[in-house]
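Quick check before the chapter quiz. The format below is the same one you will see on the exam, so make sure you can read both the input and the output lines.
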Amino acid sequence: MLFEFVVDKDKTTIVITREFDAALSLVWDAFTKKEYLDQWGAPKPWIAKTKSMEFKTGGRRLYSMSGPEGQEHWSIQDYTSISPKTNIQYISNFADKDGNPAPQFKGSLNNLDFREAKSAGDNTVTTVTITIKYESLAVLEMMIEKGFREGMTLTLHNLERLILTGALK
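Here is the expected output.
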């Protein structure tokens, strides 16, 4: 399945394109329901834990990525636009456990596009294109330096594995 990770330093963006061998409705649910997000939303051995989530325009998800030695890194997603089964837009930011944004980091703008198609083998394939816009080149480079590509690769692989094994229904 297609996986592309493109860094555009001039536009301070990362564009991730990932195909999943699954129907659009299942992939949409995997990105929009906390019980699914918590199953795949962190690179192993880390786990995602959603503290609260209101999936609607103007809503927020507050979650942590928890490490095997008790580490916790909190983040928020403030949903700015939702077009069911086609697009999600949100501002993502690091935060504390109460959802207060990290003051030293202006949140990234995230745009997720979902598209379903039939493959040559007549399987249903859903493509998710994630565009992340950072406030500056320095922030983009910090994210790359801290292993964002590797983390996203592992995380999306978690989702693929759950889909292929039928764990998400």
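If your answer matched, good. The longest strand covers residues 72-83.
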